Amino acid sequence: MSTLTRSVLAGTRTEQHATRAAFFLPGFATAAWAPLVPFAKSRTGLDEGSLGLVLLCLGAGSLLSMPLAGMLAARHGCRAVMIATLIMVIAALPLLAIAPSPWTLGLALFVFGAGVGACDCTMNIQAVMVERDSGRPMMSGFHAFYSIGGAVGAAAMTALLALHLPPWLVCLLGSAVMAALLAASLPFWRNDKAASGAPVFAVPQGVVLGIGVLCFVAFLAEGAMLDWSAVFLHEVQHVDPSRAGLGFMTFAIAMTVTRLVGDGMVARLGRHRAILLGSLVAAGGFALVTFAPALPLALLGYALIGLGCANIVPALFSMAGNQKAMPESLAIPAITTLGYAGVLAGPALIGFVAQGSSLVFAFCLVAAALLLIGLSARWLKA
């Protein structure tokens, strides 16, 4: 092998590692917010309904930033957009730990959500180019690193909070780690200009609409874990706030491990059976979380939710890629938008339901919705 060939291969591997870091960073940041929710709720004096409303700011920031990120990446390249958006996230995270009022918390969440959403969009553009150059499938591995970032972020934040460090200091440490990883990775991110003519959004129709609705529900369940798992453990099962992040940490670890082996599982079961089995397992996990009499059983429930949800969304995206009702280039953006709406706006809906009844009832509704995913997917011929 020539020196030039070895140099090219080394550069390619470095670029791939940097792309994995691009997925790891927003996963870490998003998960770092989950253990902070009970502290933010207590500090700002919010009830469940008001907290759900404030959480909409995170979703609004993400959804508004995604189309802008695509346009900016087309004009300036992925590297510049990812650097700018990750700086927004790194700066906003400590503000989430000190915001003294609902208004300031909502503003910090909007900036934080805008940075995460824009980075989510741009890192996928980066990943497509790196995967194409590699000549082999790599997208599942890249997305697994988002889950790995989530697991590491939840575990690190929960561990530091369990040491009774103040939340603002914990967030500063998290931001410092992200800044170091950003600095190490940014020289190897692509600066190619993305295609500017691709549509950002298409109204789904037919089978694509059905897949999109199922994606909305699946992402809603994941959003429930992110924004409500710590609150549920603290307020319903009376777990100390410093340990309330254990629920999301368990969920994230289970989902990450399952995604790393998920392609083989779906290949053996088939997409429809994998979705049905996953929905049954996840719904059972929600039931166990809701009615568990002790923390170990509740944590087992969170693990079952992660195990069940892990392969539902990838299988649904595969179905969207194989359907014939809409071109793939239009179908995938449409269901992606619906999916993000579920993970971002869904927790707010849970807050409104909890305000009108209880968090227990809201979690039961999510379990029922997951069962509907499994029962409905078999009728989607894709």
UniProtKB/TrEMBL annotation:
- Enumerate the UniProt keywords alphabetically: Membrane, Transmembrane, Transmembrane helix
| Membrane topology qualifier | Multi-pass membrane protein
Q: Which residues form the Major facilitator superfamily (MFS) profile domain?
A: 207-382
The UniProt entry, under PROSITE patterns, shows: MFS
Entry annotated with the keyword Chaperone? no
Question: What residues form the membrane-spanning segments?
Answer: 21-40, 52-73, 80-99, 105-130, 142-161, 167-189, 201-221, 241-262, 274-293, 299-318, 330-353, 359-380
Where does this chain mainly localize? membrane
Task: State the protein's name.
Answer: MFS transporter
Q: What organism does the record attribute this protein to? A: Stenotrophomonas nematodicola
Query: Which taxonomic lineage is given here?
Result: Bacteria, Pseudomonadati, Pseudomonadota, Gammaproteobacteria, Lysobacterales
